[in-house]
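Consider the tokenized backbone below.
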């Protein structure tokens, strides 16, 4: 057997996952994704096993809903052939493995540090000495932006190579604020501590990451999830999508100096995030999602309040959007700007909106359904074809309307909520669990492995930005440098979600 088949939120015995010789491991996983647009790598990571490293690779099949998992035990030192040499889907995963364990790949095309973790294998590698790609030419010049951001978000450095105003190449370096969250999941043993960590993986994706953690933890502990918890997580996910997409439309309008759109969309975002405050006491939804319980049960009164918000939101949103997407000045800035083709997103392995903008259907709500996407909401992913800023703007508009319809559908049948109980969670021994969630930005993946005592041995997190930063670098090529802000905002990728 060359792989073991699992499904989303399924817990399996570690011993059931086949351990292959490295060359077999490489050949099998490359073969699984090569010439299969419906398959991609959802996680690929290493776990220290004394003086060796055990590599785990997880390949998702979006048509069969299956996830193929296998492993390989390798020695430290020496050089390996890379999966990336055959398929670029594995590029960042292998760079992280190299940084964490010092494993070298002889034929990896871009083997640079990823995150500069405090416990990285080579402490001589310093972020100040990051090896940027350069061009030795009298006609070209370099432009450096960051790492200090003009706003209040996390640091990141963007190095442009330009011919006049035209961008020829962009390299993005993150890792300035690596927080060690994955290590903290092992150190902090209280459930509340771990749930709080999940809430802070990416501040704009509180619901997405905490839902992934909660679904995983309930599976790992053999606990059945009550319908009310499925309801809360699904509703909160769609509300988070509405709030962030609306805010992003405001930012896109601001980046092209359309101040009316910036003001109206910014105002429309406010009542959505304020509803999270009304529901659970926090505008980012912190505290609402918890494994096994909910401390803030959803009520009919809250449902009525949310319907009132939608009644006020929709007419203003529709009027503003109709005008925004028809103005010649707006279309001139958004259409054919920041194009990434279908072939490029497939090669990069993008997920979420950054895949769907170019016609590549990747949406966990359909391909590996979870919570109420399994039996209540029949989700249909929204696809665009042009892969430009305008496509990414249209997806936001269409997904907001779709998410509102999903919320209204859920509010028609609000389940009964049990009184929150302090349930004792006991993870099963020597198990492997994988949880996939479609956040507003795209595919979130959490993996957990327990040891012979039932304690966490590894906890691996993947934010969708992990896949998508390279798409931004490709999008700006041959655009003017003045178009970079709107290209960047049209993706709205996460710095902290990368710098775990």
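A designed sequence for it:
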């Amino acid at each position: 057997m060359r792989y073991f088949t699992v499904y989303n939120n399924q817990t399996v015995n570690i011993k059931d996952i086949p351990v292959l010789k490295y060359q077999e491991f490489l050949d099998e996983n490359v073969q699984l994704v090569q010439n299969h647009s419906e398959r991609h790598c959802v996680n690929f990571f290493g776990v220290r096993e004394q003086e060796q490293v055990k590599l785990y690779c997880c390949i998702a099949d979006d048509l069969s809903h299956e996830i193929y998992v296998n492993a390989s035990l390798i020695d430290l030192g020496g050089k390996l052939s890379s999966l990336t040499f055959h398929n670029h889907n594995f590029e960042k995963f292998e760079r992280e493995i190299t940084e964490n364990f010092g494993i070298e790949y002889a034929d990896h095309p871009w083997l640079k540090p990823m995150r500069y973790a405090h416990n990285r294998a080579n402490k001589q590698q310093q972020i100040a000495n990051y090896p940027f790609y350069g061009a030795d030419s009298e006609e070209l010049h370099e432009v450096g932006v960051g790492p200090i951001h003009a706003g209040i978000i996390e640091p990141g450095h963007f190095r442009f190579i330009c011919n006049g105003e035209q961008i020829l190449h962009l390299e993005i370096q993150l890792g300035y604020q690596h927080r060690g969250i994955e290590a903290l999941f092992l150190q902090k043993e209280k459930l509340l501590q771990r749930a709080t960590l999940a809430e802070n993986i990416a501040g704009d994706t509180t619901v997405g990451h905490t839902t992934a953690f909660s679904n995983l933890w309930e599976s790992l502990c053999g606990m059945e999830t009550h319908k009310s918890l499925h309801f809360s997580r699904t509703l909160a996910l769609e509300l988070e999508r509405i709030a962030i997409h609306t805010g992003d439309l405001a930012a896109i309008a601001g980046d092209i100096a359309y101040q009316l759109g910036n003001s109206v969309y910014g105002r429309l975002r406010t009542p959505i995030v304020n509803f999270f405050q009304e529901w659970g006491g926090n505008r980012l939804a912190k505290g609402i999602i918890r494994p096994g319980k909910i401390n803030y049960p959803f009520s009919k009164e809250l449902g009525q309040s949310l319907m009132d918000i939608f009644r006020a939101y929709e007419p203003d949103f529709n009027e503003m959007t109709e005008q925004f997407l028809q103005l010649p000045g707006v279309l001139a800035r958004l259409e054919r700007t920041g194009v990434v083709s279908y072939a490029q997103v497939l090669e990069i392995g993008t997920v979420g909106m950054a895949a769907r903008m170019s016609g590549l259907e990747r949406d966990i709500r359909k391909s590996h359904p979870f919570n109420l996407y399994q039996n209540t909401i029949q989700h249909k992913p929204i696809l665009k074809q042009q892969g430009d800023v305008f496509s990414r703007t249209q997806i936001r508009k269409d997904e907001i309307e779709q998410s509102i319809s999903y919320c209204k559908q859920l509010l028609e049948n609000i389940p009964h909520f049990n009184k929150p109980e302090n349930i004792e969670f006991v993870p099963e021994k020597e198990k492997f669990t994988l949880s996939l969630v479609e956040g507003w930005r795209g595919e979130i993946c959490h993996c957990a492995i327990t040891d012979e005592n039932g304690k966490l041995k590894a906890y691996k997190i993947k934010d969708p930005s992990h896949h998508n930063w390279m798409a931004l670098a490709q999008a700006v090529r041959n655009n003017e440098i003045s178009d970079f802000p709107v290209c960047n905002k049209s993706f709205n990728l996460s710095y902290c979600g990368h710098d775990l």
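Residues 227-255 form the longest helix (29 residues).
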